[in-house]
Amino acid sequence: MKNNRRRKKIRNLIIICFICAIIVSVGTYAWFIGMKTVNVSSFDVEIATTEGLFLSMDGEHWSYQLDAKNATPYTGNTNTWAPTGLIPISSVGDLDATVSRLQLYEKGSLTTTKGGYRLLASRVHNYDNTETGKNGTSESNGYVAFDLFIKNLSGTEYYAENNILNEEDIYLTTNSAVTVATNGGVAGTGIENSVRVAFAQIGRVEATDGVASVDNITGITCTDVAAGTGQAQVTGICRQAQIWEPNDKAHVQNAINWYETSCKIRKETGTDVTLAASYDSTACSGVANNAANKTYAISRVINIADNVDIYDGAQYNTYEDNTIEYATYDAAVNRNAAALAQTDDAEKATAAEAAKTTARAEYKLVDFPYFTDTMKNLTSTERPTFMKLAPNSITKVRVYIWIEGQDVDNYDFASLGKKISINFGFTKERYTEDDIDYTGPSTDITPVENNNQQQGGGEPQTP
Q1: Which of 18, 129, 197, 277 has minimal CB crowding within 10 Å?
Q2: According to the model, what pLDDT value does residue 415 have?
Q3: What is the SS3 string spanning the chain?
Q4: pLDDT band at 316, cuts 50/70/90?
Q5: How far apart are the first and last CA of the chain?
C-alpha cells in the first residue's frame, strides 16, 4: 500500500520540479571492439514545473511546461542531439572554464590484451571548433548536449558571489529512471545500465525583471562579468558537474559473462599492459546483479606509455597503479586550482586550467562518485541533495547524456538494445507523503497560469 501511494505521488506534479522524457535510439560503437552505429531518432523532452520555477530554451519565453527538443532554441545555440548516433565516452565532470564545456574523452584505440583491452583515449573536440554565428564552442557528435535555462523566483535577494552556501537544495525525483523503450527497444541487453546524465551549471544572472536582457542570459559563460551599460552581472559557476548514474545495481547476465570471460587478474608487477606475463590465468570477479560497481572514469588523455587496461582497478583486475580515489583527485585538481584562480581576476580562468592540467597529469582513471539510483531512492532525512540553485536567479545549465565507456555494463552486444527511455525530474521538496504518513487532501496541484505572473518573461507560455 505504501509503495502504491509513492507511485501515485510520483505521477503528480505537486512541487517545483521539471521532468524530462527522452527516447533514444542507441545503437552504439562498443567501447571494446566496435559495432555499427544506428542514428538517433525520436527524442521527446518534456519539462514541467509548478509555481516559482520557470524553464526556457531561448532565455526569453518562460513556461511551466516545455518540449525541449521541439521548442525554439536561442539563435547561435550549440545544442546537439547526436544526429549520427551515440558513442561510448567518459568523463569525471570537469568543466573547461575557457570554453564553458564539459571535458569528455573517447576511445582512441583498443587492443586486446591477455587480460582485457589496452585503452588509449583522446579528448572529444568540443573545445576548439567554434562555428561562425554560434554562441560558444560547438559540441561534437556521439552524445546529447543542450542548454536549459532555469529561472528560480524564490526570494528577492540575488547573491552575486559563487558560494554554494547561498543556494537552495534541489532533489532528484524518485520517478527518475532509465529503461529500455517499450516502443522499439530490445530488453535484456543492459544498454540502459551504462547511461550517464550530467548537469553542468555554467553561470547565472539576476532574475529581477529588467536586469538581464535575452542576450545577457543566453551569452552566460563560466566567466564572471561585471554589471555595466546594458549588461547584467554574470556570476560564473563552472563547478564540477553533477552526474547521475541510473540502474547502479542492475547488471544483466550477458554483461557479467562478457566481463568474466575477458577480464583476468593483472599482477602487481605487470606494468606493461601488452605482455602476457603481466596477467595470470585467474578470471576477474566482483560483478554481480543487485550490487553496485565502481566506474573508473577517464580524467585525461591516455597514451601508450600510460599502460592502461580498461579493467584496471581494485574491484576488477585488482591492479591499482592507474586508478585513484575521487577525493584525492578532487583535492589536487579542483580545490587547488580553485584556490590558485583567486589570485588575480584577470587570470582566473587561465590559472585554474593550468593548475588542473598540471595536477591531472598524475592521474588516469578516477573512481567517480556518481549520484545513483540507490541514493535517489533514500527516504525522509536520508534523501541527499542532488544539486543547488541560487534564489532570484536565472541559471544556464548544460545537460549532457552519454553512454559511459568505462562502465562494465557497456559490452559489445549491449547496443542491440536499440532504444532507451530517459525520464528525470527535480524538486525542492525533500519529503513525500509517505515520509510523513500524509492523510490530508489530494496533493495533485498544478499551476494556475493567471495567478502566477513571472518576472522578465510575462505570462507563462503554454507548450
Answers
A1: 277
A2: 64
A3: CHHHHHHHHHCCCCCCCCEEEEEEECCECCCCCCCCCCCCCCCCCEEECCCCEEEECCCCCCECEEECCCCCCCCCCCCEECCCCECCEECCCCEECCCCEECCEEEEEEEEECCEEEEEEEECCCCCCCCCCCCCCCCCCCCEEEEEEEEECCCCCCCCCCCHHHCEEEEECCCCEEEECCCCCCCCCCHHHHEEEEEEEEEEEECCCCCCCHHHHHCCCCCCECCECCECCEEECCCCCEEEECCCCCCCHHHHHHHHHHCEEECCCCCCCCCHHHEEEEECCCCCCCCCCCCEEECCCECHHHCCECCCCCCCCCCCCCEEEHHHHHHHHHHHHHHHHCCCHHHHHHHHHHHHHHHHCCCCEEECCCEEHHHHCCCHHHCCCCEEECCCEEEEEEEEEEEECCCCCCCHHHHHHCEEEEEEEEECCCCCCHHHCCCCCCCCCCCCHHHCCECCCECCCCC
A4: very high
A5: 35
CA-closest candidate to residue 264, choices 311, 315, 307? 311
Once rounded to an integer, what is the mean pLDDT over residues 431-438? Answer: 84
pLDDT tens per residue across span 15-60: 344 555 666 665 444 443 333 222 223 334 444 444 567 888 999 9
DSSP structure class, residue 401: E
Q: Which three cell numbers stand for residue 138?
A: 560547438
Q: What is the pLDDT of residue 348?
A: 62
CB 194 within 8 A of CB 88: yes
Highest mean pLDDT among 104-108, 137-141, 201-205, 437-441: 201-205
Q: What mean pLDDT is predicted for residues 333-355?
A: 61
- Confidence tier at 179 by pLDDT (50, 70, 90): confident
Strands 242-245, 371-372: pairing is: parallel
